[in-house]
Amino acid sequence: MRGIYLSVKNDTEGFRLPVNPETVNVKNKGDGESFKIAKLGSVNVPKDVELKEFDLESFFPAQKYHFLETDFREPSFYTEKLEKWMNDKEPVRYIYVDGSFIINELVTIESFEYDESYGTADVNFTLALKKFVPFGPKKLKVAKPKTTTASSKKKPAAVKKKTPATQNKRTVPQTYSLVKGDSLWKVAQKYTGNGNNYSELAKLNNIQPSQYRKLAIGLKLKIPPSWTKK
């Protein structure tokens, strides 16, 4: 069944037009911009399509007619509703149904004009509607960080400080300077506990047997690495 319905507040308030318009107009218009280009002439640059517009023209009856589509109320009921919605800037749900052709849009009232027919008290009207697109700031949900209990918090692994060898061990020199009364045998005895290891010390420092008794005080001897290992 052909019919037009207007409502607000999620269809909690509204009405059906008692008399359907003869025609229902839908206006789609682009928002292109024209430019003139040398040797080419005018060109049009297409942009986003403008909001749809709808025009309705009918009347609110003051008396009963055989062609009325629904029960009707006094014309002032309809005019006052439409004026209030327009003044309150209420988005209006506009529904038109005619078989398979359906319009279901949220609109705003752009203009509302009416006048009374002489002799009948019927109120003629024209209604201009424009599609409404809801807009406004959106609430964003901020994810809260997960709270952790003291027992669930993982403590960072303790880092063991490495104690330098010089702090917990006596530094063993890699060389030794002879003092008065020293000999290769005494140095070997000092480092290895066995003076008979002197030959290893002599070999490392290229000291010949003929030089054993002529070693100068202060002579710096290289100590075999195996002697200094702990």
Automatic annotation (TrEMBL):
The organism named in the record is Heyndrickxia oleronia
Lineage at the top is: Bacteria, Bacillati, Bacillota, Bacilli, Bacillales
Give the start-end ranges of region Disordered: 145-167
Q: Which Pfam families match?
A: LysM
Q: SMART domains of this UniProt entry?
A: LysM (SM00257)
Q: Which domain of life is it from?
A: Bacteria
Q: What is this protein called?
A: LysM peptidoglycan-binding domain-containing protein
InterPro entries the UniProt entry points to: LysM (IPR018392), LysM_dom_sf (IPR036779)
Q: In what residue span(s) does the LysM domain sit?
A: 174-223
Bias class Basic residues marks the residues at: 152-163
